[in-house]
């Protein structure tokens, strides 16, 4: 009887979940209206149509239904068969509390996966102070190649490192060869099963925020550092934009939104505590996010975001803030020099030099902006300051900066200095991508000066 009640509760939750989604609700209403319309037509036909015509229409309707069923079966039957065959290839190990399914290649790690799954569940329950009911649950561990095959079967263009099925009480984890990463993913996915007890339909910003916060609850600085990196990189974005779950899960934003949600949730937990956050989570079932925020935390979501941003920019350790800014500037430079706007480079370079005046990358970024303005003297000045900066790096990116300094010197007629820069560039590793490799060009310019007649776009490879 207990199992029957459990199955009925799953069906009820599934129907409620589908009804709360606007697209599913519209589809259900459309089907209901179509059914009622069909019943009405049938009643009218019995009154107004002759029996022969009524029987003909009935047979026509059955024929159309049969054609649709055949089309549906042909279209989806093969896919379901392939998924079934894929699932049959997995190995299974059943215990009283867990059913572990995994790729055959992961057989040597079976016991370790079982141990990590149990430990992650206990740790998530303890952190969130919400134990799950004693029930057997499924854990599926897939290799990356196996996940790619499943995505092809379902025509999924994007995949994640794991996901949780709250109705079936199961979690899926993609194993990339790092057992500790798999453990953190298990923490993340178990959290979804736990927070479903609080409110299954909370916005993704807070559901994923709680999951990432649990994932990094023992290393909050790492979560805050990741969030600060993306804040530096996408400095104009606001959390308010991602309260909508469809925007939150946009594949173009998924790394940033997950990082921001986790850091923001950790900030709320550190400032207000878990009981208040859990009450806020419950409020989201009947109130909008801003109403729930105002009622529980006595501030708007926008005000909380400003306080969180100020916390990341001022309260984190200085070295953490510098590292996040440096990585954001490095990546912004990479894309800005590939034909994107240099405004972000200008802002991040100035901030980098405020935080760390001896960082070569800040001067280099200002030199890039000066070149796009056509100011060769400014480029020369900023690049040479980058060369004199005490803090340097042994990277291909640093070597490319020397190469570009040689180009600027060639354009200004400083041939000897240009050759020195090309020689220094060859001391660093080359870029991996052939389109941006510079060693071959540096050797060529050692023999023949770079001139405008070559019509190479500066910094574009």
Describe what you observe in this structure.
The protein starts with a helix and ends in a 14-residue tail after the last helix. It folds into three domains: 1-36, no CATH class; 92-314, Neutral Protease, domain 2, CATH 1.10.390; 318-454, Tetratricopeptide repeat domain (Serine Threonine Protein Phosphatase 5, Tetratricopeptide repeat, Alpha Horseshoe), CATH 1.25.40.10. Helix 8 crosses helix 10 (254-272). The model is unreliable at 455-461 (pLDDT under 50). A hairpin with a 3-residue loop joins strand 1 (91-94) and strand 2 (98-102). The chain is globular. It contains 20 helices and five strands. The longest helix has 38 residues, at 51-88. A five-stranded mixed β-sheet has the order 1-2-3-5-4. It is mainly α and 461 residues long. The chain has helices at residues 2-19, 22-48, 51-88, 110-128, 144-154, 179-198, 204-215, 220-233, 245-248, 254-272, 274-283, 289-297, 301-314, 318-336, 343-355, 360-372, 376-388, 396-411, 415-425, 439-447, and strands at residues 91-94, 98-102, 137-143, 162-165, 170-175.
Low-confidence stretches: 455-461
From the alpha-carbon coordinates, what is the Rg to the nearest angstrom? 30 Å
Work out the oligomeric state of the chains in this entry.
single chain
Number of helices: 20
Question: Which helices and strands appear, and what pairs or packs with what?
Answer:
Elements: H1 2-19, H2 22-48, H3 51-88, E1 91-94, E2 98-102, H4 110-128, E3 137-143, H5 144-154, E4 162-165, E5 170-175, H6 179-198, H7 204-215, H8 220-233, H9 245-248, H10 254-272, H11 274-283, H12 289-297, H13 301-314, H14 318-336, H15 343-355, H16 360-372, H17 376-388, H18 396-411, H19 415-425, H20 439-447
Parallel strand pairs: 2-3, 3-5
Antiparallel strand pairs: 1-2, 4-5
């Amino acid at each position: 009887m207990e199992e029957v009640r459990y199955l009925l509760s799953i069906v009820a939750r599934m129907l409620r979940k589908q009804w709360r989604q606007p697209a599913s609700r519209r589809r259900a209403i459309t089907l209901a209206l179509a059914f009622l319309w069909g019943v009405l037509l049938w009643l009218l036909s019995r009154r107004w149509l002759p029996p022969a015509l009524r029987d003909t229409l009935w047979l026509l309707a059955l024929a159309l239904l049969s054609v649709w069923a055949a089309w549906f079966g042909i279209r989806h039957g093969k896919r379901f068969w392939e998924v079934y065959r894929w699932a049959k290839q997995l190995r299974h190990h059943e215990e009283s509390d867990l059913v572990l399914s995994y790729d055959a290649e992961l057989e040597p790690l079976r016991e370790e996966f079982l141990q990590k799954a149990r430990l992650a569940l206990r740790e998530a329950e303890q952190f969130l102070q919400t134990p799950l009911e004693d029930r057997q649950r499924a854990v599926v561990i897939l290799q990356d190649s196996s996940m790619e095959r499943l995505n092809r079967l379902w025509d999924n263009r994007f995949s994640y490192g794991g996901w949780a099925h709250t109705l079936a009480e199961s979690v899926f984890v993609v194993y990339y060869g790092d057992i500790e990463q798999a453990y953190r993913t298990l923490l993340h996915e178990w959290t979804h099963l736990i927070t479903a007890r609080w409110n299954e339909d909370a916005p993704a910003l807070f559901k994923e925020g709680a999951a990432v916060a649990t994932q990094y609850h023992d290393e909050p600085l790492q979560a805050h550092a990741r969030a600060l990196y993306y804040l530096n990189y996408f400095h104009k974005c606001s959390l308010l934009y991602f309260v909508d779950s469809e925007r939150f899960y946009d594949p173009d934003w998924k790394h940033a939104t997950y990082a921001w949600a986790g850091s923001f949730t950790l900030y709320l937990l550190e400032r207000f505590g878990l009981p208040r956050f859990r009450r806020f989570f419950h409020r989201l079932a009947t109130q909008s996010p801003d109403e729930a925020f105002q009622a529980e935390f006595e501030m708007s979501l926008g005000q909380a975001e400003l306080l969180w941003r100020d916390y990341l920019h001022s309260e984190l350790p200085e070295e953490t803030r510098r590292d996040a800014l440096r990585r954001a500037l490095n990546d912004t430079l990479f894309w800005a020099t590939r034909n994107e706007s240099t405004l972000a480079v200008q802002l991040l370079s100035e901030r980098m030099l405020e935080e760390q005046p001896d960082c070569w990358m800040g001067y280099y970024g200002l030199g890039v902006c000066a070149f796009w303005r056509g100011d060769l003297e400014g480029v020369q000045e900023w690049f040479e300051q980058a060369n004199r900066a005490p803090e340097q790096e042994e990277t291909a990116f640093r070597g490319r900066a020397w190469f570009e300094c040689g180009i600027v010197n060639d354009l200004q007629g400083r041939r000897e200095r240009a050759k020195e820069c090309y020689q220094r560039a060859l001391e660093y590793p080359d870029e991996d991508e052939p389109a941006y490799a510079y060693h071959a060009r540096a050797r060529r310019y050692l023999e023949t000066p770079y001139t405008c007649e070559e019509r190479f776009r500066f910094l574009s490879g």
